[in-house]
Amino acid sequence: MSNAPAAAHALDVLEHLSRRAEPVPAASIARDLGLPRSSVYHLLKVLHGRGYVTHYVEERRFGLGSAAYELGSAYQRQAPLARIARAPMRRLVDQCGRNAHFATLDGRDVIYLLEERAAGQPTLVTDVGVRLPAHLTASGVAMLSALPATQVRALYPDRSAFVQRHGTGPRSLAELRSILARTRADGHAREDGTITPELSSIAVPVSDRAGRPLAAIAVTLRSEDASPEHVAELVERTRATAADIARRLSPTR
């Protein structure tokens, strides 16, 4: 239980508004959060005064305000994902002796935010800032597997969305769905030579408290070194690193 209930309730209100597609009445906020109406009105008044909530007077509804947007923009400017992931990623590379990279999903692409290289390992194409088709990468498949089916369908409406590299990878939504189902069953994604011939990658998503994928961690190795035992070890270490980063990004209340 929070030691600062007013602050916790204010954050509850903001999180509630962030999950709504449209502004909502104060009464529905109170009902959904299980709070007294008087308390909700007081919180909304304070948040409105600070710019975090907008009051649509004629509609008698409330939505997020410009200060909430500015806060989100500041979060992006500070590049928190890469900053928080850097130390755990370095430890992962030290432990497994393989290259590792950290990426986020942007539409149908993955964007690489961080790469940690191990001595003696092959050079990768996943430099910081590089974009690659999500459905071809282990990182992308790991994140896509954690998305709702409707969102995946919206991202890949027809065959033209399935660009190819080296003539490999899924060519239809049905093929992609099969890969995503296997990924969910295995608990990790795997890519063999789709991005770079003779290299394989495994990846797991980094998710928030609601299970939404924030990013993914992938480890890459030569395909000839990808024995079942070694892959299982890499998956275990990568999962532990993903869990560590997730805790840092979304600590338990």
UniProtKB/TrEMBL annotation:
Return one GO MF term.
Answer: DNA binding
Q: Which UniProt keywords apply?
A: DNA-binding, Transcription, Transcription regulation
A biological-process GO annotation: negative regulation of DNA-templated transcription
Keyword match Transcription regulation: yes
In this protein, which residues make up the domain named IclR-ED?
Answer: 67-251
Domain HTH iclR-type: residue ranges: 4-66
Q: What is this protein called?
A: IclR family transcriptional regulator
Protein species of origin: Intrasporangium oryzae NRRL B-24470
